[in-house]
Amino acid sequence: MSKNFRVLASVALAASLAATSACSNTRDEEASSGSSSNLIGIAMPQKSLERWNKDGSHLDEILKKAGYETSLQHADSVEQQITQIQNMINQNPKVLVVASIDGTALAPALEKAAEKKVKVIAYDRLINSTPNVDFYATFDNYLVGKLQGQFIEEKLGLKDGKGPFNLEAFAGSADDNNAKFFFSGAWDVLKPYIDSGKLVVPSGKKPATNEEWTTVSVQGWKTETAQSEMDNRLNSFYTGGKKVNVVLSPNDSLALGIAQSLESKGYKPGADYPIITGQDADLANTKNVLADKQSMTVWKDTRTLGDQVLKMVDAIVKGGTVETNDTKTYNNGVKVVPSYLLPPVVVTKDDVKTKLVDSGFYTADKLGL
Ligand code: GAL
């Protein structure tokens, strides 16, 4: 991802966060959709990835509370999600909220939505290659990665010239538009240290540019795939007492597999245990952070995302103007989709209580605190 892009992304975000604007685009003239029903379709990815359960149930609950009918569906495959979306469209919803499994696979299905004047909000993950997506609500995905990269930089003292350290890097699912933003945010911080030799990658799996991020991607964000990949790297490149010092994991489902692999190779929390990053504050991972088996997680309060989407739905249904704070960053290949970006937050062992428990995201009991 070019330097200009990064500068553009952060300037755009700073400017737009400062001046939240009411957005209008060509499909906005008819702010309210053609359908007479009060139905909101909610299409979510697989339940096996913990956060989507939280996202789905929270959004469903607050929409119902606001007086809408809802249809909430989770899918385990792209094909299943396409069928679910087609069925929802046939029920003439006012708005379709879609967290896509593969953002490049929905264009044909959304043509039907356009014909029926159903408004489409991309949820967390951008929908690509179609004009038929009206708004995008997500967290600042590039900043998620940047926070992971900066955490590593600070923990290792890289700015003070410390090193060399052994790094292994992972990226998210190749079909997930967010994954390249996560990777680019982190790699823009870490790559200069790889170039200077302060970070060494014994497996050699170090993308030369951000565009090559899929060379370290883990399909479907699968824990077991990350675990076996880490096993292979440790077996092949960490012999004769060589230790891994830091693992860039883009999210918690991968971090869990990576921690399980390290444990199976005899790594124990303490001096020799590597820094491991994460994202989502999944329950098992938050417990791992408390147990020093993971160093941090980038928390995205999914409740705030749901709340923002409810505001968007209300504005669309009531013919109002939809609040956005970024109208530059997210080009889906056909158009720049007006977006609302929410801030991600770093959580470490020291602030699990203040950030996750005091905010009600978890009870102390659930975390064993
Ligand atoms: C991303 C999402 C992350 C993480 C990952 C795996 O798109 O933004 O929060 O959950 O998918 O589900």
Automatic annotation (TrEMBL):
Domain Periplasmic binding protein: 40-320
Cleavable signal peptide: 1-24
SUPFAM superfamilies: Periplasmic binding protein-like I
CDD domains membership: PBP1_ChvE
Subcellular location: Cell envelope
Keywords carried by this UniProt record: Signal
PROSITE patterns: PROKAR_LIPOPROTEIN
Main location: other
NCBIfam families (alphabetical): ChvE
The name this protein goes by in its record: Sugar-binding protein
Organism: Actinoplanes flavus
Organism lineage: Bacteria, Bacillati, Actinomycetota, Actinomycetes, Micromonosporales
